[in-house]
Amino acid sequence: MTPTRSFQRLIEKPSLYGVIIALTILVMLPIVWLLISSLKAESDFMKWPIVWFPPTPKWDNYLRVLTDTRFDFLQAAFNSIILALLFSVPNVLFSASAGYAFARMKAPGRNALFVILMATLMLPQSVTLIPQFIMYSRLGLVNNYLLWFLWGLGGSPFQILLFRQFFAAFPRELEDAAAIDGAGRLRMFIQVFLPNAKPVLSVTFLFAFSWVWGDWFNQSLFLSGDKATLAMKLASAFTDPRGNPIVTLTLTGLVIYAMPLVLVYLLMQRQLVQGIVTTGLKG
Amino acid sequence: MTSDVLPYAPARTGRKILGMSRYEWVQNRWFYIFIAPWFLGFLAFTLFPVTIGVLMSFTNFNGSNFQTYQFVGLDNYREAFTQMLSSGDFWHAVTVTVRYALITIPINISLSLFIAVLLTRNIHGQGLFRTLFYIPSIIPVVASVWIFKALMDNNYGVVNSVLDALVPGTYVRWMTDYPFFVLVMWSIWAGIGGGIIIFMAGINGVPTEFVEAARIDGATNGQVFRLVTTPLLTPVIFYQFLVGVIGALQVMTQPILLAPGGLKSIGTIPPRETYTLMIHIYQESFTRLRYGYGSALLWLLFCVILILTLIVTYTSKYWVYYEVNPQEES
């Protein structure tokens, strides 16, 4: 390495780290601000000039959000969990079965069906917005959690693709051995393929769960009243009995709302990143 | 499958199932059984609504005239074009949406590519930085929009406080005067994480022989990136661009949640600067009960997305570099 080259490297690296760290701080600041604000008293939050740090962190903000019956936070959280489970469990199961079929079986029309699957992946979801709403209100499915279960039964193209990719890489011998033991297609799927698909099962479950957990649009379109979920509740600010918004407590609620997803992401990030890369889509 | 490749097929034809002989059905049934839930879902939640939607766009359906609606031919589409020519609300919503797409997609792609390039330059803590950059994308939209409302608030926002400290007396009413800017900032902050992950995978996937060969030929970092990495990344950029267009043209949730005011419902009308096409379609259909006209607008949106997709796909052969045959076996 020539002297100029090594000198170049010497100043290049620190400046590279400098740029990366500066960008990271810029991206993380809003989240840090959310965490700090969630510990402030409302009066400190509203002060001008700004009070950067709360004089004493108000940890009981968290207790208040969780226990104050006027906010009904726990009920909404419970609703969100039920709704997300109603969707994700059948969604993962039937995405897996379709992915398995596309990866390991041949039948007339398979390629045509796969083209349909890819086309629905690119189809803008809003195109079906109006007819779906009319359909569901005629069928009495508006303000009904059953709707999410029915959506789940159909799987989703994104998840099917993940399973197909995963099952396609399974060794042929595994299948043959099971076939020699007399396993039919169904038993092979349940006893050989599913138990060996834990990484994809957990990733797809997390994708499905967080899709419902974070979705505000469909929930506020189809649900109301005591069926309201956390996403719907937190879209509007919490208010005091006189109807004034309390922003800090709302932000506290948002931390509790977003925290589970972020924690699970940190725990499972290797598999999640793999899932995102495989499909080129962002969950 | 014909019987000449399956010599043991029974001669007895019997009843046909799905157009197949009994033997073929037994051979293939598990495939159809396994995909049945997805396929029925596709029929019920996609194909049927799409068909109804097309038909509805030619009627004066208003949500309750199930027995008495009439086919009005192309009237709904004609009205949309009149609205466009007379710069009505529809046209305004189109310009907002197109501006949003034109600004956010190039910024998102180039910024996430830039950061991905920095992060793949043989540095320590690659994975840690990647994780941190993706956290904003994990946070549900309701929460991330609230963060921006708190940051950019007219009165107690951080951004105004910092500006005031730098240039005393500065006061910008971001949420009411520049809601479009806030929307763009949100979409960059929440959007680059996914792009970074996908581009990093793309860059790390560039065969090292290519990079080494270029280095032996005396290429600098910049030249390697411009002449080796970028061409190999064009399929990824192309795909990100398509997905970005499809998403951006349908944007609706974020402007509603960013709108000033405490109570938020799906019928909330945001400031005019962020009044997007989907919000206009929602208002026409669900508030003014003009489902027929709303469906026509949805189909115009769909056609625009389709045409853009076709244009991008068609022109891709001039700028997308495929190392392998794109029609690889599926």
Please sum up the structure shown.
The complex is a heterodimer of chains A (283) and B (330). With 283 residues, chain A is an all-alpha fold.
Mean pLDDT across all amino acids of chain B: 87
Question: What structural class do helix, strand and pairing data of chain A support?
Answer: mainly alpha
The total domain count of chain B is: 2
- Radius of gyration from the alpha-carbon trace of chain B, in angstroms: 26 Å
CATH class of the largest domain in chain B: Mainly Alpha
Which homologous superfamily in CATH is the superfamily of the largest domain in chain B? MetI-like
> What is the CA-atom radius of gyration of chain A, in angstroms?
24 Å
Strand percentage of chain B lies at under 5%
**Largest interface, by Cβ-Cβ below 8 angstroms: which chains and how many residues each?**
A-B, 95 and 96 residues
- The counted number of beta strands of chain B is 0
Keywords:
heterodimer, A: 283 residues, mainly alpha, MetI-like fold, 2 domains, 14 helices, B: 330 residues, globular, disordered N terminus, disordered C terminus
Plain-language structure description:
The complex is a heterodimer of chains A (283) and B (330). Helices cover 71% and strands 0% of the residues of chain A. Chain A is mainly alpha-helical and 283 residues long. Chain A folds into two domains: 3-60, no CATH class; 69-279, MetI-like fold, CATH 1.10.3720.10. The mean pLDDT of chain A is 89. The model of chain B is unreliable at 1-7 and 324-330 (pLDDT under 50). In chain B, helix 2 packs across helix 13 (291-319). Helices cover 68% and strands 0% of the residues of chain B. Chain B has 330 residues and is mainly alpha-helical. Chain B folds into two domains: 1-56, no CATH class; 79-319, MetI-like (MetI-like fold, Orthogonal Bundle). Chains A and B meet through helix 1, helix 4, helix 5, helix 6 and helix 7 of A and helix 1, helix 3, helix 4, helix 5 and helix 6 of B.
